[in-house]
Amino acid sequence: MENQDQYKTSGQQPKKKSVFRRIILPILIGIVILAVIMMKLGSNKAKMDANASITEQKMTVFPVTVAEPKMETVTQDFELNGNFIPDHQLSFVSEVSGRVRTLSVENGDYVNAGKVIATLDNEQIRIDLALAKTTLDKAKLDLEKFERMVTSGAVNKQQVEDKRLEVNTADAKVKTLQHSLRLTTIVSPISGVVSNVSIEKGSYLAPGTAIADIVDIKSLKMSVKLLDVQVVRVKAGQAVNIVPDLYENTTIAGKIASVSPQADGSRKFDTEIRFTNPAKTPLKSGMTGKVKFTFGGTKEALTIPLKCLVGSIKDPKVFVIQGGKSKLTKIEIGAVDDDKIEIVSGLTPGMKVVKTGQLNIDNGSKVKIIK
Predict the structure, then answer these.
(1) Which is deepest, 38, 76, 341, 358, by most CB within 10 Å?
(2) 299 strand-pairing partners
(3) Beta bridge partners of 298
């Protein structure tokens, strides 16, 4: 009995120790390691948050350069860039169908208005026209016969009217064919240089087939866009000076041909200037140049550099520095040239207007003025 108790006691103790070593001890060790890792991660996160906070505090102050609005003597003249376009340009098409019998122009040829460019085969039209004329002649004879017979009562007035209708129908048929016959001779509608010839001898044309372009560059137009503060100062017929980019030392006299009464989507007004293409310095369609609008005289005006502007000219704004912060301010502008703009309202002399660094700041951003 005593031996059995000793046996039981000696058997249970090793089992409890084995369970503790195999299961419980590793779990406790894992918990301790996990707790150490969590404490370490928490400490690292706190350091990262602190560093991020310091970095954010450093980045909240943005360096900018500024300019002060100042009174200057400015000219009331201004100039704009534009491109040259033909005064007369026409793309014409065939009005009848037929096969090209002759073609007398090539790209680059100069033609006068009315010059024959091509002819179409018109044999069938001539046959139809001859038949239509015969039908018309017969209808006229029948009408004359019925008009004599109506007096004797051999025919009634309605029959005479029917014959008159036949004459009118036959006459209309003749005129239609004569018109079609004329259209088989294709002539230039305007004077100019031929380009984009789209047909060749032997090709078949259907109504609406493109034939060629005629471009008249003896006189040209220049297309420019005016701001509202500019368009109110110009009018049709006003003289201007044009300086082609190709001939920088050449000035060409021109006149304003038209000014659009309505602004486009960018709040600018399309304006066309017409001028004669100089023979000594010939220009081509698509070339560019400057047009100078001259009004004479000067005036005192408040100005800032053009680069201070935020956004577009149609909705002008600038950043003004107040108390170390940027304030987005709407302004009204007047004349605009290559490097400065006239301030009508919104700014006063002595203000600090951001000149560079606008892309990095918003309304209310902290800024530091640098030189």
Answers:
(1) 341
(2) 74
(3) 75
C-beta separation of 216 from 277 below 8 A = no
CATH of the domain spanning 79-85+217-293? 2.40.30.170
Q: Once rounded to an integer, what is the mean pLDDT over residues 25-47?
A: 74
The residue ranges of DSSP E strands in 237-278, in sequence order, are 239-244, 252-259, 269-276
pLDDT single digits (tens) 98-131: 999 999 999 989 999 899 999 999 999 999 999 9
CA distance 270 to 335: 18
Tokens 């039981």 label which residue? 8
Q: Where are the domains of the chain?
A: 63-76+298-369, 79-85+217-293, 90-205
Closest CA to 215 of 283, 118, 280, 289: 283
Ordered DSSP codes for 221-244? EEEEEE-HHHHTT--TT-EEEEEE
Sheet (strand 340-345) strand order: 70-75, 298-305, 340-345, 332-336
Please state whether beta strands 252-259 and 340-345 pair in parallel, antiparallel, or not at all (unpaired): unpaired
DSSP 29-64: HHHHHHHHHHHHHHHHHHHHHHHHHHHHHHHTEEEE
**Averaged pLDDT for residues 282-306:** 87
Pairwise CA distance, residues 348 & 260, whole Å: 34
The token pair at 24 is: 């419980």
CATH topology identical between 63-76+298-369 and 79-85+217-293: no
CATH code for the part of the protein at 90-205: 1.10.287.470
Euclidean distance between CA atoms 271 and 334, whole angstroms: 19
Residue 7 has a pLDDT of 44
3-state secondary structure of 173: helix
DSSP symbol at 310: B
| CA terminus-to-terminus distance, the chain | 103
The pTM of the whole model exceeds 0.90: no
Contacts with 230 (C-beta within 8 Å, 6 or more apart), sequence order: 78, 293, 335
Q: What is the reported pLDDT for 166? A: 94
